[in-house]
Design a protein that fits this description.
16 helices, binds nicotinamide-adenine-dinucleotide, Aldehyde Dehydrogenase, Chain A, domain 2, six-stranded mixed β-sheet, Aldehyde Dehydrogenase, Chain A, domain 1, globular, seven-stranded mixed β-sheet
């Protein structure tokens, strides 16, 4: 769609240097409500020219004394204020998210109410960021390090949790003294454009926080290859991540990648079967499986297999699918038609590869519109088929039996991803052993999908690199400067006279 149709749909412009600007080509595109499959607002279709404009604005703001000379304490205060304003509008922002990506209002409400905690956490860290004095091995030298911001940060996010995934980048980037250009997913831009309305009210100078909207081509591409961008924080799929790394390498921008996973829940024979089943269900059917940490594989010990499987199937076949804005709904639609088609393809593939379809596997009856799919469980005898190895990003669980601890560690690690692992066992020593042996950035024992601003997230392999959240995320947005001071009163000898 290149022109605004004569409708009353809301129209969003881009937020640049504290102002709302139209895209340079005047074009907008539609954003769809996954529950109805209908468009509900228009988003500005940014161009390479717009990206250049917004990056220059962010760069000017970075150099401007109003921001550059602010103390860490003052920056922390602004970040805290932004968190407080988000808390006031949490309910409304949650509704924007649900309308845009189809996730349950119940889940988004919970996420949005918790989101300010991330701003408060980083605001609290602001005046604890410091360098150190080094016990240098040279007489008459006083040497210290200081922490400095990097410059313009490009933050690129996917559609599944737009505000949460933006916050993980925005709060530490600001506390560290950077300025930021955020490019949300073209599928879910509205909630962020609502959130940035609070930036000015919080007291940030113009240009410190900016939003450019549009598609990967040209917006994502020109943003990640822009010479003034010093840091790229990307969350999305591995294929896009490869473009991002290639682009940012042109200018040696520092990069972190938060990508997908094929995360397993491992259930040992001494686990509480009902708890494990609930953890598995929350891990894969929460958010209709559209979560980077979706527990899409379940390894069940043969001695507990039937019991856990029974609870799983009983509960999953009762899941209430429906309008995500209704409080009683337990599973909403997928975020896009493309995503629905992708899930359908994987289910066909699973059947063709010899997986046994236990429940689900199709669109639910009774829905004339919207991108709904049933919660689906497959049984497999091994971890070799494509649906047990590739990320689906939908409500499809693969269940696989195992007998030995060594065997299940090998099965859990037999993927190119390395994001999250769930371990279900009452044996603490075993939980520690397995937690150490699995390849993952996050391990949950007798719980799944727990998050906190204090705990870092991230992975290895196809799941990316770098960490978001927690104290260490601050270092991802800063660099050290070392300062040498000669305190000697002696004159400096001629460097060409050998001593
Ligand atoms: P995606 O990779 O298609 O898109 C992510 C973002 O990248 C979007 O904003 C998109 O417009 C942008 N983009 C596309 N092409 C680009 C380019 N050439 N240069 C720069 N940017 C470009 O991902 P998606 O489909 O929106 O989201 C699903 C993926 O995100 C899944 O793989 C999922 O596992 C992953 N994810 C990871 C985490 C995590 O924290 N590890 C969280 C959520 C989602």
């Amino acid at each position: 769609m290149t022109e605004l149709a004569a409708t009353n749909l809301k129209k969003y412009n881009m937020y640049v240097n504290g102002e709302w600007i139209e895209p340079s080509n005047g074009e907008y595109f539609q954003s769809y409500n996954p529950a109805t499959g209908e468009p509900w607002c228009y988003i500005a279709k940014g161009t390479a020219e717009d990206v250049d404009k917004v990056v220059h604005a962010a760069h000017r703001a970075f150099l401007n004394s109003e921001w550059a000379n602010m103390t860490f304490t003052e920056r922390g205060r602004l970040v805290r204020k932004l968190g407080e304003l988000i808390a006031e509008r949490a309910e409304e922002l949650a509704e924007f998210e649900t309308r845009d990506n189809g996730k349950l209002i119940r889940e988004m409400r919970g996420q949005l109410k918790y989101l300010p905690e991330f701003f408060y956490y980083y605001a609290g860290l602001a005046d604890k960021i410091h360098g150190e004095t080094l016990p240098i091995d040279k007489r008459d030298m006083f040497v210290f390090t200081s922490k400095e911001p990097l410059g313009v940060v490009a933050a690129i996010t996917p559609w599944n949790s737009p505000l949460y995934l933006t916050t993980l980048k925005l709060a530490p980037a600001l506390v560290a003294g950077n300025t930021i250009v955020i490019k949300p997913s073209e599928v879910t831009s509205a909630s962020l454009l609502e959130l940035v309305k609070l930036v000015e009210e919080a007291g940030f100078p113009p240009g410190v926080v900016n939003v450019v909207t549009g598609f990967g081509q040209p917006v994502g591409d020109s943003l990640t290859s822009h010479p003034l961008v010093r840091r790229v924080a990307f969350t999305g799929g591995p294929e896009t991540a490869r473009h991002v790394v290639r682009n940012s390498s042109e200018n040696f921008a520092k990069v972190t990648l938060e990508l997908g996973g094929k995360s397993p829940n491992i259930v040992f024979d001494d686990a509480d079967p009902a708890n494990a089943a609930m953890g598995i269900i929350a891990g894969i059917f929460g958010a209709s499986g559209q979560s980077c940490v979706a527990g899409s594989r379940a390894f069940l010990h043969v001695d507990i297999y039937d019991k856990v499987m029974q609870i799983l199937v009983d509960r999953v076949s009762q899941i209430k699918i429906g309008d995500p804005l209704m409080d009683e709904t337990e599973m909403g639609p997928l975020a896009t038609k493309t995503q629905l088609e992708r899930v359908e393809k994987y289910v066909d593939l699973g059947i063709n590869e010899g997986g046994k379809l236990i429940t689900g596997g199709k669109k639910p009856g009774g829905f004339k519109q919207g991108w709904y799919f049933e919660p689906t469980i497959f049984e497999h005898t091994n971890n070799k088929s494509r649906i047990t190895r590739e990320e689906i990003f939908g409500p499809v669980l693969s269940v696989i039996p195992f007998k030995e601890e060594e065997e299940v560690i090998q099965l859990a690690n037999s993927t190119d991803y390395g994001l999250a692992v769930g371990i279900w066992s009452k044996d603490g020593a075993r939980a520690h052993r397995v937690a150490k042996a699995v390849r993952a950035g996050i391990v949950w024992v007798n719980t799944y999908r727990s998050i906190s601003p204090i705990a870092p997230i991230g992975g290895s392999g196809l799941s990316g690199f770098g960490r978001e959240g927690g104290y260490e995320a601050i270092n991802e947005y800063m660099q050290s400067k070392v300062v040498w001071i000669n305190t000697s009163t002696e004159s400096i000898p001629d460097p060409f006279i050998m001593r």
